[in-house]
Amino acid sequence: MTLRMPAEWERQKAIWLAWPHNKEDWPGKFEPIPYVYAEIIRYLTLTQVVRLVVKNARQQKEVAAILEQAHADLDKVDFIIAPTDRIWLRDCGPIFVYKGKERVLLDWHFNAWAKYDNWHHDDKMPARAQKHLSLTRIQPMHKDRRVVLEGGAIDVNGKGTLLTTEECLLSKVQCRNPGFKREDYEQLFSQYFGISNVIWLGNGIVGDDTHGHVDDLARFVNPTTVVTVVEKDKSDGNFALLRDNLKRLKSARDQNGKQLTVVELPMPKPVMFDGERLPASYANFLIANDVVLVPTFNDANDRIALNILAELFPGRDVVGIYCGDFVWGLGTIHCASQQEPI
Fold first, then answer.
1. For the domain 3-341, what is the CATH code?
2. pTM, whole model, 2 decimals?
3. What is the pLDDT of residue 7?
4. Catalytic one among 92, 168, 323, 335?
5. What DSSP string runs through 177-246?
6. How many beta carbons lie within 10 A of that of residue 71, not counting itself?
7. From the centroid of its chain, how far is CA 76?
8. Whether 42 contacts 71, CB under 8 Å
């Protein structure tokens, strides 16, 4: 039976998050991060369950106190005790798909974006999720080996079309699966996600530690509409690469051969810390059942981005979450989360 990955806007049972604990991920800026998480969880528990991974019972108690102060609904927080290296569950957590009406979780191999050595706890997250949920778990294989794939590298419309980037999957830099070509990935996407049509974008944004994740670039907001970030300043490092991606999207077609509606999102002004440009992007929003959480950066374009997304999600509250400190960890809201469909 064919597998199908649902779109993010389809009804969800829960959102998975892992409570931040690795201070090395936010050197010099860790203190506000738990409170950013508390705000995210407060909004999510208004609409659905949050499955929250904590490292031990002591941390669970500490986190519960913070969430209570933030007025999150603790009755909708499902604590899961498990060790993690980092908190980026979009990339190391399970990716849920349907096999008919049955929910199945995919356990892609995770190797910390082919960049860091400390990934062994994170690689076990899908197995821990299987144990917690008692679902079937599949480890995708190709050419007699487990396949590395992160959730932030892909975005789907739930109907057969998938977005990804050449920089992430086809580059020799931070190479996830040496020897894999475009055709190998398209075969995998067909087999495990039910994808018949892949749209390949070029490069990811400047400062992206993952080397090209699409969830900082372009996202489906309904089966026929994509939002993509653009940069108007010709002197900015993102200008040319985002213009190339926009051109690719405008010439792309969906699984039925129809042209997509492409909506442009602005980029915030460069967010810098300690001489480093950070991957700040409004495209890293999270779609939940009744709310869309959007990273904001105390930038004039915050309001423009929120208004554009509010028009695209008329049935959901579109809420800005300040991520000026959060992005120092080299990711924001979408990177940290993984949706679990009903």
1. 3.75.10.10
2. 0.98
3. 98
4. 335
5. STT--HHHHHHHHHHHH--SEEEEE----TT-TTSS-GGGTEEEEETTEEEEEE---TTSTTHHHHHHHH
6. 12
7. 22
8. yes
| 272: β partners | 277
Residue among 152, 153, 188 at smallest CA distance from 168: 153
Q: For 302, how many CA atoms within 13 A lie in the half-sphere containing its CB?
A: 15
What are the pLDDT digits (tens) for 275-301? 999 999 999 999 999 999 999 999 999
pLDDT for 255-268, tens place per residue? 999 999 999 999 99
- Give CA–CA dist 296/298, Å, rounded: 6
Q: Which 8-state DSSP code applies to residue 153?
A: G
Go through the chain and tell me how many residues it has.
Answer: 342
Annotated catalytic, 175? no
C-alpha to C-alpha distance for 335 and 272, rounded to whole angstroms:
19
Between the alpha carbon of residue 131 and those of residues 12, 82, 127, the distances in Å are: 19, 11, 6
